[in-house]
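User: I'm preparing a small set of examples for a lab meeting where we compare how different chains pack in three dimensions. I only have the primary sequence for this one, and I'd like the structure in token form so I can line it up with the others. Please keep the answer compact; I'll paste it straight into my notes.
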Amino acid sequence: MSSFKTVMSNDLLMMIRSGNTLNIIDVRETYEFERGHIPGAINIPLSAFDLNKLDKSKEYYVVCETGARSIEVARALAQYGYKIINVMGGTSAYRGMLVR
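Assistant: Understood. Below is the structure token output for the 100-residue chain.
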């Protein structure tokens, strides 16, 4: 079984503030995403997740509201051979600016 890495929301914030270019997937529903999301994140809701939108050569940070949905997606994507980092705590623990 493939595995994935994990970071805390504040670690993700530090990477963003350091100027790192990250591939962030927000798996919340569209209405949740529109209420506020991490800058640069793309929205691929869990309810309509499409693997065809991903490139296996890239590394992806997966985020949701609290970390429950993102860990589900992280497990599945890792099983298919994607390079995944699950963001624990999700947007509810993220202390940076959210895009609305």
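A couple of notes for your slides: The beta strands are 5-8, 23-26, 42-43, 59-63, 83-88. The chain has a mean pLDDT of 95.

User: Perfect, thanks.
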